[in-house]
């Protein structure tokens, strides 16, 4: 069960004992109700004897007294004077201009903080009008003197800054240079040191295979197909509510518990804490969505299909331009022949070899062993013949 806690502050009145006659007086008065002696600074405030039964102060004028700040001394009779009084309540002396710089225009405009804790997580609700709502209290926060600290300019750690900024720049520049170095093309004068060709002929034969599979997985061109309906799997169906669980929680069984944590405001009043404890009650029952599993049917088929397999391969090779195919031939409609060919030209530049693969026989026919060529190469092995050079006359 989750416990919801909400805390708030409220004000109660304290008492002071007259040192002249021993009478207990309410915190709001500054003159003893029995002997009319003024309150003195050594007559401290103390919680009322019936503290727990003391009512909460909600009257704006009394709250104004409560948060007026510590008392002053009358400069004429030395009795305690509230710092918002114009005249001394004891001798009637004029205390000067009514100072209200640190007091709100109306205590009913002040705000309080209410802390709410739900399951160990605390939140603050601020800016709630106190006197318009029950059991709420405004608290006045005295403005603190502000000062302008001396600004200290940050010192830049230049070596570290240069390392952070310069290292990526150096790495990027190095990478760009490496790509240019590897892939930049340049021309070389080369000699054809070898040419070669190969031609391969292969005979494939068609066979009949049998298999079983679902209808949508049969190969194209299947024949002698025989299908029947079978369960292929299941699917979700018939949605319904299941696994009930409580939902839509609301606070319930709430009660206010006094914490007995009070702070003397030294104005005849004290500020206390109170905590409201509530249980978390669930008002509704919710359900998860569950599904039944319904069978799914499809066609399971047996079938025959054709497959081609290589049964013979012959290759011819040469280092000249006399290219020819092997005399291999297919036998009947159940066989077919496939043919492939390839070419290679090898160049030499200062004892370094480069290999070039012509696209077809026409391209291959341009090259002869011993001929000089200008080729365009790079450092990763790319070769592009540019033009055939004139042979030097002996």
Envelope shape: elongated
Question: Structural class of the helix and strand makeup?
Answer: mainly beta
Mean pLDDT: 82
Strand percentage:
over 45%
> How far is the first residue's CA from the last residue's CA?
108 Å
Which characteristics define this entry?
mainly beta; 3-stranded antiparallel beta sheet; 10-stranded antiparallel beta sheet; 3 helices; 394 residues; 15 strands
Structural description of this entry:
- The protein is mainly β.
- The protein has a domain of 127 residues.
- The protein is 9% helix and 49% strand.
- The protein contains 3 helices and 15 strands.
- Strands 1, 7, 8, 9, 10, 11, 12, 13, 14 and 15 form a 10-stranded antiparallel β-sheet that branches.
- β7 and β8 form a beta hairpin.
- About 14% of the residues have low confidence.
Walk me through the topology.
Blueprint: E1 3-13, E2 15-17, E3 24-26, E4 45-46, H1 60-66, E5 72-73, E6 80-81, E7 111-118, E8 121-129, H2 158-183, E9 186-214, E10 223-264, E11 269-318, E12 335-349, E13 352-356, H3 361-364, E14 372-377, E15 383-388
Antiparallel strand pairs: 1-7, 1-11, 2-3, 2-4, 5-6, 7-8, 9-11, 9-12, 9-14, 10-11, 12-13, 14-15
């Amino acid at each position: 069960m989750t416990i919801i806690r909400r805390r708030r502050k409220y004000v109660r009145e304290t008492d002071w004992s007259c040192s002249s006659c021993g009478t207990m007086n309410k915190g709001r008065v500054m003159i003893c109700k029995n002997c009319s002696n003024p309150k003195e600074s050594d007559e401290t405030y103390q919680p009322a004897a019936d503290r727990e039964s003391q009512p909460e102060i909600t009257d704006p004028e009394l709250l104004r007294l409560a948060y007026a700040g510590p008392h002053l001394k009358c400069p004429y009779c030395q009795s305690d004077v509230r710092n918002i009084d114009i005249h001394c309540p004891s001798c009637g002396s004029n205390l000067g201009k009514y100072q209200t710089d640190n007091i709100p225009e109306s205590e009913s405009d002040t705000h309080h903080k209410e802390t709410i804790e739900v399951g160990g997580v605390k939140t603050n609700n601020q800016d709630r009008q106190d006197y318009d709502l029950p059991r709420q209290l405004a608290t006045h926060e005295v403005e603190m003197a502000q000062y302008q600290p001396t600004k200290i300019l940050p010192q830049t750690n230049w070596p570290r800054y240069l390392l952070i900024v310069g290292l990526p720049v150096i790495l990027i520049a190095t990478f760009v240079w490496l790509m240019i170095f590897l892939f930049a093309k340049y021309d070389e004068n080369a000699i054809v040191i070898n040419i070669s060709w190969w031609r391969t002929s292969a005979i494939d034969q068609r066979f009949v295979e049998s298999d079983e599979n679902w209808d949508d997985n049969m190969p194209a061109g299947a024949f002698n197909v025989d299908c029947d309906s079978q369960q292929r799997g299941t699917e979700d169906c018939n949605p319904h509510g299941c696994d009930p669980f409580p939902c839509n929680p609301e606070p319930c069984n709430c009660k206010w518990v006094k914490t007995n944590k009070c702070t003397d405001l030294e104005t005849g009043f004290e500020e206390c804490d109170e905590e409201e404890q509530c249980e978390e009650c669930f008002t509704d029952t919710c359900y998860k969505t569950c599904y039944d599993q319904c069978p799914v049917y499809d066609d399971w088929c047996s079938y025959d299909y054709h497959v081609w397999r290589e049964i013979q391969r012959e290759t011819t090779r040469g280092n000249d331009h006399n290219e020819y195919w092997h005399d291999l031939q297919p036998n009947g409609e159940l066989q077919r022949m496939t043919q492939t060919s390839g070419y290679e030209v090898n160049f030499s530049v200062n004892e370094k070899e480069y290999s070039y693969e012509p696209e077809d026989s026409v391209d291959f026919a341009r090259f002869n062993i011993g001929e000089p060529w200008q080729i365009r190469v790079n450092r990763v092995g790319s070769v592009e013949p540019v033009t055939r050079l004139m042979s030097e006359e002996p």
